[in-house]
UniProtKB/TrEMBL annotation:
It comes from Sphaerotilus uruguayifluvii. This is Carboxypeptidase regulatory-like domain-containing protein. PROSITE patterns: PROKAR_LIPOPROTEIN (PS51257). It comes from the Bacteria. Keywords: Signal. Residues 1-26 form the signal peptide.
Amino acid sequence: MSRILRAGCAALASAALLGLSGCGGGGGSDASGSTPVTARPAAVTLSGTVATGAAFEGATLVVTDRSGAEVGRIDAVGADGSYTLTLAAGAQAPFVITATRDELRLVSVHDSASDATVNVTPVTTLIAARLSPSGDPDRLAAEVAAGSARIDAAALASRVEEVRSLLQPVLDATGNRDTDLLRGAMQTDGRGQDRLLDSLKITITPDSSGSSNIQVTVRQQTAEDSEPASISFNSASTAAPPALPTVAAADLVPDGSSALIADLLARATACYALPLESRVSRTDAAAGPADVQATACRDLFVDADPAGYLHNGARVGPSGAFGGLFRAGATGLVFSRGSYEFSRVNGDLVIGYTTTTTGGSTDTGALVVRRVNEAGSGRPVLRVIGNQYAHDGGVAAFHQHRRFLSLAQSGWDYHSVGYTLSVANRTDGSGHPVYDRVVVTSPRGHQLTLRPTSGSSYLVLVKSGGTPTGTNFVRLRSRYAAADASGHPSERDTSLFFAPNDMEDTELSGLSAHSVWKFEYYLASAPGTLAATQHYKTRARPLSIAELRQRGLATLTEAGQSALAAATLPSNGRLPLPDSGGVTLDWQVPAGALAPTDLKLWGRASASGGSFNDQRSVASTARSGTIGCSAQTTSDAHCTSGGDFVPAATADGLHLWARDGDGREFASFYAMYRLATPQ
């Protein structure tokens, strides 16, 4: 996640594939960089609340002192986010308090060796970032120990006041004008200071070892085609950070919403805790909303009726929305870590969440929910409703490291960042594509066209001359990984979709977290008539190339990478696919990287064309998986009748895909084709 807070291929012999089993402006330092040592009592007790709005339940909380030593730890923050911790005797102020859960990290500080209330929130993380000479709150503890960051009463008060000025419009709108942002009393009930946290999205993303990009976005209700208030700046800038514009209280999340989100996710967990036979009356392909029978499950939906749920054209069913209700494997699924994202023009809320299986595998997602009054009690509750769109669609920030291990082309590996425009290649009862095209208008007014192709599970981007590309990824900026590589990746990788002119990293870091995209749908049955218009908002901006290079990504195992590099391939470089058993991949996940939850393979059914893609969802705990063959349309000829790849099928590439809690997507891509020679 742009940190919210900070934000197999055995031998790959000719016919076998992939058994791949085998801120200068951020610091408060004086000239010497030293931090005065404060007299210390025998013990210091700290207490407070750890929250992002919702309680930061389950997080590990660690306190480090001036020397960099760990002087206190709580292994799991409780359900209400509160903590109390007595530090080791002799602990030296100042203290840095860090709460970590998955890829998310919150940071706070305490300047003296005295008992105190110290909260740990996105706002305190922003304060910590402004105390850090690198602008990176994750580095602050080490910077204090090294003497490059100073935390004393004066430095802390200065940075707190700076952050207060930056946030003042939202402080006023949420009734927090006089709230102590670091030490004020708070509870995770969506009121008071907690409502302030629900109303802010603070993202801090390092772009080098010495600076970080900081973005503050107001989570608010806006028109479908409008972006929320937002500011962006780099920690190395010597100018004062800009202040947020005026915000209307009526446009912010209603009081108490974080508690309602937690309640909804608890009710979803209770539904999935029921045995399959209690949840639904049938599980075959024809099952639908009427077959959801458990009251605990029906009550998740508006009017306690799953039939009213519609999201991107999908209704409740085994192969549609809430498909887990109809599968025994989803029993025991836990919904948690809810977050308010923004409100739609009709007042419906978009919320993020995490699911955890009984085996420990996690995934993230988002729901559109409606606040209603519960029958009988009249108390407000949230129920799921979906976006009520008739057609599929969506936009997400996307990041890719594209590697060319075969054909001695690794010198042309490159990074790309941008957006994926996702529309499923839906078919009618006869297996023919439903859509003729979808025209997408970007936040800056540029129009892009998506069209169906026979072997693709999604609509693909079309180049200006009308040529389909095989991808739905708009590359806004691309750069070679090797410092000595000249030119631009688009000159060699000619079949993909690159923006005509790369955006600069500074432009990317200033993009809105909640950018707005318009999708216009034209059906194959009436290509001259506009069938529908739908608007989508992103949940996060793309990282810049510099920011992406600070992150780790999952990769194929060393054995798998070596096998690809050593493979003997035909002149076109495409790897022949196995005629049975599918494609097996093994991968590794470095510390701090996201674990893949989707594997995808791209290829061609024959030497003359017929491009296709196949994919396989995997658990986040998995480190191996097999991609099988699956036809997408009636004219898709890359699979045999038995479900294997046809003998002439070859692979162009594969990727390991992961998604963070902000909905941003990351992919390690392994390309298997010969690059073009620049003209």
